[in-house]
Design a protein that fits this description.
single chain, about 350 residues, alpha/beta, six-stranded parallel sheet, seven-stranded mixed sheet, binds zinc ion
């Protein structure tokens, strides 16, 4: 099969890879209908995260089940399925509490690499959610978004306790931040402020429900949010970047007693203890337990109540994955969908 490999910083190639086979009786093999490039794939692409190339890439996926192992009970060949970037059994205590991304049997799908024609999905019964039928083509991008960026933005909004009467501030205007806006809107937030200085992203944020835009960053951006909230700060802040600056911006934009939902993969973030102590904010985040939200998100997409697939503003054949990475790295594209 064809699959994407990262050889080193800036060096993405699509090559022949071994077609995956069932390895454990709980596995399923899926034929990818669509896959994509994640903002987090850019960390190793930019050389900020070390990679021992050639490494298979990709952890977002939707597709049709080809084959299942002998212990798989609920997932069947022919079903169209969505899964998240951590395989999980969905039965252990951590899963049942809603933290499937930290399942005691969690396996990272990124190590398998879904930017390919086929993928082996571990713990198929726990990991995969089947759609009610074969989706119309125009629903596929939205179902793919549910696999990671929508689920992650949704978790961030839930962790930040976005809801009726609340002002939600969103740090980060990538796909996760933008879908955090959509999630906050769905959860009933009254006012949604996004930090963004890119016109196309501002426009999409507005479509998803943002009511205010702040172009300033850092302390100036925090001051703008304070101005918009009678000097108090936002009730809820979504952090969707993962840098020192973005994390501090999120904490400082939040009012005492407010909630920060942080989902940007943390890179060298160090929190100053005394400032954190006096901030009085709740911090909750981490790798999003997307699986917790998948049934609800698939249902909202199936009924066409949300259209998160709008974050894909570039669609390419899998063979052109390298251009998909480049376009995102140069911020020419918000998110690239790849067709195997
Ligand atoms: Zn589990």
């Amino acid at each position: 099969m064809r699959g994407t490999l990262l050889y080193g910083p800036g060096d993405v190639r699509v090559e022949e890879r071994e077609t995956p086979r069932i390895e454990k009786p709980t596995d399923a093999i899926i034929r990818l209908a669509a896959t994509c490039v994640c903002g987090s794939d850019l960390w190793p692409y930019r050389g900020i995260e070390e990679v021992e190339g050639p490494a298979p890439m990709g952890h977002e996926y939707v597709g049709v089940v080809e084959e299942v192992g002998s212990d798989v009970r609920t997932i069947q060949p022919g079903q169209f399925v969505v899964g998240s970037f951590f395989a999980s059994d969905n039965t252990c205590e951590i899963c049942r509490a809603g933290y499937q991304s930290r399942c005691v049997h969690a396996e990272l799908v990124g190590a398998i690499g879904t930017q390919a024609q086929y993928a082996r999905i571990p713990l198929a019964d726990g990991t995969l959610v089947a759609t009610p039928g074969s989706p119309d083509d125009d629903l596929v991008p939205s179902l793919l978004a549910a696999s990671d960026v929508l689920g992650t933005g949704w978790f961030a909004a839930v962790a930040a306790e976005a809801g009726p009467g609340k002002t939600v501030a969103v740090v980060g205007d990538g796909a996760v931040g933008l879908l955090g806006v959509l999630a906050a809107k769905q959860l009933g937030a009254e006012r949604i402020v996004i930090f963004s200085r890119h016109e196309s992203r501002q426009k999409l944020a507005r479509e998803f429900g943002a009511t205010d835009l702040v172009v300033e960053r850092g302390d100036e951006g925090v001051a703008r949010v304070k101005e918009l909230t009678h000097g108090l700060g936002a009730h809820s802040v979504i952090e969707a970047v993962g840098t020192q600056e973005s994390m501090m911006q999120a904490i400082r934009a939040c009012r005492p007693g407010g909630h920060v939902g942080y989902v940007g993969v943390s890179h060298d973030v160090v929190l100053p203890g005394q400032e954190l102590f006096f901030s009085g904010v709740h911090l909750h985040g981490g790798p999003a337990p997307v699986r917790r939200f998948l049934p609800e998100l698939v249902d909202l997409i199936w009924r066409r109540e949300i259209d998160p697939g709008k974050v894909f503003d570039l669609q390419l054949p899998l063979e052109q994955a390298a251009e998909g990475y480049r376009a995102m790295d140069e911020r020419r594209a918000i998110k690239t969908l790849l067709l195997p």
